[in-house]
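SAMPLE LOG
Freezer: B-3
Tube label: C17
Construct: single chain, 391 aa
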Amino acid sequence: MAAQAGVDIGDVTINNAAGSAAVPIQDGGNSLTVDATSLPLPTGAATSALQTQPGVDIGDVTINNTVYSPAHVDLVKAYGPAHTHTAWVTALGELTAQAPVRIIGTSFHGTALDPLFWATTGTTGAGATVAVAGSIATLTTGTAVGTANLSSVRKARFLFARQNKFRAATRFVTAGTTNNTRRIGMDDGTNGFGFVLDGAGTFGIYSRAGGTATDKYTGLNGDLGSTYSIDTNVHALEIVYFTMETVFFIDGQILHIDIPTTAPYCANLTLPIKASNISSGTTSVPCVMEVWNATVVGLGLPNTVPTYAHISTTTTTTLKASAGRLHTIILSTKGNGTATIYDNTTAAAPILAVIDLAQAGSQYDYHCELSTGLTVVTTGAAPADLTVVFD
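STRUCTURE (predicted):
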C-alpha cells in the first residue's frame, strides 16, 4: 500500500517480527507512538519523532498549552543555558512578554556632561577629574588622595514584580593600583551593589548596606569560575535585579547570582547609577576608568493603577514617601494662591511645578517620574480645590 501525497491513510501497524534489521520510518514532524510493552525500549530511547537535542536549533516551536487557567512551561532562562526558569502562559494561551523601558541614563556627547542627567558630586582632590570627550566619560584620580564620582541625577524606580537591568560599557584603563578602588553599579552611598576593582587588581562584585560596602572577589557562582580577572579592554557590565534575585553579567555571561535567604540583598532598590574612582592614599600612577555608556531599563512597562488625593485647604501635604509618578492635577475650584509640587518627601527642591490656583476648571497632565516622593504646598487666603492623581 503506497502512501499518496496529501492522503491520510490512517493508523499503520508495522509487523517486523521476522526482520533482521530496523525498519526506517520517515515522519513529517508528527508524534510517533511506540508500543513499549511488546518492544521494550533501551534507557534514553526517543519515543517521539521530534525530539530536541542540546545545542541544536530546531527552528520555530509552537507551545500548545490547553490549560484554561494561568499555567507555565519550562524554558531556558535568559541568564544562560545552565539556568532554567519558568515562562508564564495566560488562560488565552498567550506567552507573557516584557518590553524594556529605559528609566535613567543617557549617552555622553561633546565635551561636557548634561547637568540634567549627570552629576559629579563628591569629586575632590588634586588631579581628580571627570571629563567627557565624544561618547566617553573618563574618571581620573592623580597620584594624591582623591575621588572622582559620576552619578545619574535621577534614580531608577523599582517596582515589585518587575525586574530592572543596569548596563554599562566600562573600561578600567589602568590596571589595579595600590591604594585605589574603582566601582560602578547602582549606589546612593547608603545602599547599592555593583562591580569593583581593588588596588591589587582583583575584580569582583560588591553590595552596600548602611553606607558600608562588602566586596566579594572569590566564591563567585556563575559560569566564569569562582574568580574572574578583568583586562583593560572595554566590557559590558550588567546587573539584572529584583527583590528575589540579583544577577551580575560580564559580556553576556553570568559572573554571580545572589539569592537572599533571611534578609534582602539591598534595603533599597530605587537607586541612581554611580561610578567612582577612589584613591585613599598616594598611588604610583594616575588611575583611570572610562564609562562609554550607562543606563537602567525596566523589563516591563511601568503600568500601575493610580490613586488620588483631595486637597481643599492651604497646607503642606506629603502624598508619597518614595519614588512614583505624578499623573494629573485637577483644579475644580479656583483660589487666589499657588500650589507648589515637589519631588521630595518635604517642601524642598527639586520643584516639579508651580500652579496658579486662580484658574478654575483646569487640568494639568504631567506623567512625570518621581525619584524621591511627592509633596504639595498650597497657599492663598481663599483655598482652592485640588485632586492629585499619582502612583
